[in-house]
């Protein structure tokens, strides 16, 4: 699958190098298990920082966050219902653990079926599920070659832990500037205890030659429960960043509270695409991941940030990728497809904060609800007193499949400048029996028909994704909705 | 090709088809006429396998086998095509993507290889030329914003691509201008062969000027009340349905 994430010839070249010469490298199977006792207090925060060998300023930063967090209450306003996690029963540090599985037979057959449907190769299936392999293109070696190419352009792409050690000046300068420790309950928690994440810096005027994907780094870091991502695009630079993976991610950790911060300096552009497929829980809604994410970007003059997300997973999702359009003429975009099935609940949307003059934002949100699920769009568009000629266009569509699910739209609008303009469109539709019958009459099975109709409905969002990612996202949508009508 | 035997069908307990008997052999063209609400679209939907209808009696044999238990897509794979009286819109799905998917699904079901992209495109071009369609159609959303006539022409385009054994055209001529009517008729005639059959539902003789039917049937209150050759259509054109209704009274 990482093959598909490469697109241009430069990338082919890297591939060649790796596949021809380093084929013999085996999979990394060392089992590390380094856990600290459950619970959270200042000592635990210090311990996490110490385990990661962090400098004093970082420890202090975490402690500040912790002190804010203890005084905060878990938010209640989202349209989701779940049993609140017991924060004192979670273990907040666990070094990347590789579960040793000897063959695919030991895996959940459901998971295997999904892999097959996604068209993931056998080797890839093994890699994703952590099966020990004899022959595999080790993704760490791909990543290394990949890094070399980036380094030539002065691009930094590494784990957050590494960045704290190697690039303290950048981290000190930017970490927490977009999502401060005090921002919200989950962001404060994340700031106190995050174990790892990604850091990316694109120097002035540099166009990153390939899609940057966390996928390359999975082996290095493991997906933490509290991930921290920081992307800084210096003046006039461009980067397209991919997060997540279409393969279903199962995780022992029920609670996930990530923070993503984007900084787009003058004339810079960041395109951030996410395809997330956390385990949503079984058909009864048991065992799924709670995903509480804070994602925000800040745009300086003429800068542009574009969030694209396809969300199909998680039992409960709470997520609002946002843009602060601080600089004049800056542009924010949000394209989202959120699918909920069975008993999933999603409360997602965006915030577009227009501060500068002539700022522009576009919101395209496509919700799809099936089964007994609930899907809410929550969007805030705020146009500040200096935001002369600010423009927003919002389109929030909901598609219902069956009559036991729900779609809800909560648009919040605040306009403080007389020349600012907003345009809001919302539709709710049902997948029509007429449409399905029409497709069936032309030879498509029920499931193919639904997949086709849904993909058509999401086209405006899928078009924003890098080509190969879009193809995978389409398949993913089809799989998520299997068995939802009929 | 198809044999409909004493077919009774109802919607919500309300009988609509009340004992239809009809046999269409390979190579034949049958025209079905009849006043509004007589059950023509119901008959075509039932043949195509729409679920809303309950078959209370009778059978439908397609190439000698009952298809009542078959899903709509399976019937399509067997070579059954229905040109809808009201084709639906599917936003965001392009005409070319839709046809490609449809054609390859049928091929897959028959154990054939899917068409590669260039063969597919060539075939689409060929059929579009035959139907004098603008190539721009291929990249438009299926039926979205199409004019009435464009929708119908798009149905015939799909028929030409899928090359069915039995094509049911439900009022495909309604909404077509005079030129389009001729073009659509040419499309149908191009597909006519000793192996293919057509069931053409229409209210007007003008389509039958171009596609000469072997048999003409009149459906009235859920039954075929009169059958004849092409002259029956001419007679209906002249006299309307009153005399038939009176005969039935
Ligand atoms: N799904 C349905 N629910 C309720 N009534 C239906 C349904 N489908 C058909 N009917 C009724 O069955 C009768 C036959 O309808 P049908 O559409 O088959 O007529 P038709 O011969 O095609 O008419 P037209 O020439 O106007 O197209 C009508 O009275 C119609 O209202
Ligand atoms: Mg009709």
Protein model, in words:
The complex is a heterodimer of chains A (486) and B (249). With 486 residues, chain A is α/β, with parallel strands linked by helices. Chain A has one domain (27-481). Chain A is 29% helix and 29% strand. Chain A contains 15 helices and 19 strands. Chain A has helices at 2-5, 9-21, 42-51, 56-70, 109-118, 122-129, 139-152, 160-166, 168-174, 185-193, 218-221, 433-441, 446-457, 459-462, 467-480, and strands at residues 156-159, 196-202, 212-213, 227-233, 238-244, 255-256, 259-264, 269-276, 290-299, 304-311, 316-319, 322-325, 331-340, 345-354, 360-369, 374-383, 391-400, 406-415, 421-430. In chain A, strands 1, 2, 4, 6, 7, 9, 11, 12, 14, 16 and 18 form an 11-stranded mixed β-sheet that branches. Chain A has an 8-stranded parallel β-sheet with strand order 3-5-8-10-13-15-17-19. In chain A, helix 2 (9-21) crosses helix 7 (139-152), helix 4 (56-70) runs antiparallel to helix 10 and helix 12 packs across helix 13. The model of chain A is unreliable at 1-33, 96-100, 129-142 and 216-223 (pLDDT under 50). With 249 residues, chain B is an alpha/beta fold. Chain B has a single domain, classed as P-loop containing nucleotide triphosphate hydrolases (Rossmann fold, 3-Layer(aba) Sandwich), CATH 3.40.50. Chain B is built from 9 helices and 12 strands. Chain B has helices at residues 40-48, 72-78, 95-109, 117-130, 148-162, 178-191, 205-210, 230-239, 242-248, and strands spanning 2-11, 14-24, 29-33, 54-62, 65-66, 80-83, 90-94, 141-142, 166-170, 197-201, 215-220, 223-228. A 6-stranded mixed β-sheet of chain B has the order 6-9-10-3-11-12, sandwiched between helices. In chain B, a hairpin with a 2-residue loop joins strand 4 (54-62) and strand 5. In chain B, helix 2 crosses helix 3 and helix 5 runs parallel beside helix 6 (178-191). At the A-B interface, helix 12 and helix 13 of A face helix 2, strand 7, helix 3 and strand 8 of B. The complex binds adenosine-5'-triphosphate (ATP) and magnesium ion (MG).
């Amino acid at each position: 699958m990482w093959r598909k994430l490469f697109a241009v010839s430069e990338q082919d070249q890297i591939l060649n190098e790796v596949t021809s010469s380093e084929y013999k490298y085996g999979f990394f199977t060392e089992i590390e298990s380094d856990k600290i006792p459950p619970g959270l207090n200042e000592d635990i925060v210090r311990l996490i920082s110490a385990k990661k060998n962090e400098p004093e300023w970082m420890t202090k930063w975490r402690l500040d966050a912790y002190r804010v967090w203890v005084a905060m209450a878990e938010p209640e306003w989202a349209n989701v219902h779940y049993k609140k996690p017991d924060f004192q029963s979670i273990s907040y540090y666990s070094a990347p653990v590789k579960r040793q599985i000897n063959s695919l037979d030991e895996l959940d057959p459901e998971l295997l079926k999904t892999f097959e449907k996604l068209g993931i190769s056998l080797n890839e299936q093994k890699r994703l599920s952590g099966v020990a392999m004899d022959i595999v293109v080790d993704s760490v070696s791909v990543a290394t070659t990949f890094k070399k190419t980036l380094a030539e352009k002065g691009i930094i792409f590494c784990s957050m832990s590494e960045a704290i050690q190697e690039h303290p000046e950048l981290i000190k300068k930017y970490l927490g500037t977009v999502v401060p420790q005090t921002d919200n309950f989950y962001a404060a928690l994340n700031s106190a205890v995050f174990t790892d994440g990604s850091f990316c810096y694109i120097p002035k005027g540099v166009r990153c030659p390939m899609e940057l994907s966390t996928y390359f780094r999975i082996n290095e870091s493991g997906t933490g429960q509290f991930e921290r991502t920081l992307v800084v695009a210096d003046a006039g630079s461009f980067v397209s960043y991919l997060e997540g993976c279409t393969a279903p991610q199962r995780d022992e950790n029920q609670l996930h509270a990530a923070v993503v911060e984007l900084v787009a300096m003058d004339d810079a552009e960041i395109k951030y695409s996410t395809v997330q497929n956390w385990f949503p829980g079984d058909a009864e809604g048991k065992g799924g991941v709670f995903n509480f994410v804070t994602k925000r970007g800040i745009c300086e003059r003429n800068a542009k940030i574009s969030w694209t997300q396809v969300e199909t997973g998680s039992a409960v999702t709470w997520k609002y990728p946002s843009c602060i359009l601080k600089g004049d003429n800056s542009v924010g975009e949000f394209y989202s497809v959120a699918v909920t099935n069975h008993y999933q609940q999603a409360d997602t949307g965006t915030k577009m904060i227009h501060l500068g003059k002539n700022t522009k934002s576009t919101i395209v949100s496509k919700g799809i609800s099936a089964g007994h699920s609930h899907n809410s769009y929550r969007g805030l568009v705020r146009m500040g007193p200096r935001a002369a000629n600010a423009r927003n266009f919002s389109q929030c569509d909901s598609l219902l499949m069956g009559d036991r699910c729900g779609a809800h739209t909560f648009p919040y609008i605040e306009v403080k400048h007389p020349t600012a303009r907003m345009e809001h469109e919302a539709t709710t539709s049902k997948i029509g029996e007429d449409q399905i019958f029409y497709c069936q009459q032309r030879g498509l099975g029920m499931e193919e028909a639904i997949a086709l109709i849904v993909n058509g409905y999401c086209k405006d969002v899928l078009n924003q994704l890098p080509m190969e990612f879009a193809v995978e996202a389409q398949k993913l949508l089809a799989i998520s909705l299997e068995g939802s009508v009929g | 090709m198809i044999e409909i035997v004493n077919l009774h069908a109802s919607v919500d307990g309300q009988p609509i088809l009340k004992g239809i008997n009809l046999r269409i052999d390979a190579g034949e063209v049958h025209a079905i006429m009849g006043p509004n609400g007589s059950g023509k679209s119901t008959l075509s939907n039932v043949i195509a396998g729409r679920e809303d209808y309950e078959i209370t009696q009778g059978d439908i044999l397609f190439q000698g086998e009952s298809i009542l238990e078959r899903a709509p897509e399976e019937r399509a794979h067997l070579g059954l095509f229905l040109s809808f009286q009201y084709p639906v819109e599917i936003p965001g799905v392009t005409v070319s993507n839709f046809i490609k998917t449809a054609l390859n699904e049928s091929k897959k079901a028959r154990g054939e290889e899917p068409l590669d992209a260039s063969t597919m495109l060539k075939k689409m071009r060929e059929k579009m030329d035959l139907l004098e369609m603008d190539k721009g159609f291929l990249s438009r959303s299926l039926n979205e914003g199409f004019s009435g006539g464009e929708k119908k022409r798009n149905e015939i385009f799909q028929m030409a691509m899928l090359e069915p054994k039995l094509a049911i055209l439900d009022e495909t001529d309604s909404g077509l201008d005079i030129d389009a009517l001729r073009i659509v008729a040419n499309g149908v005639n191009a597909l006519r062969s000793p192996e293919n059959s057509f069931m053409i539902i229409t209210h007007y003789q003008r389509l039958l000027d171009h596609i000469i039917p072997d048999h003409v049937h009149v459906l009235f209150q859920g039954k075929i009340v009169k059958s004849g050759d092409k002259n029956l259509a001419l007679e209906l054109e002249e006299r309307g349905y009153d005399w038939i209704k009176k005969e039935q009274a």
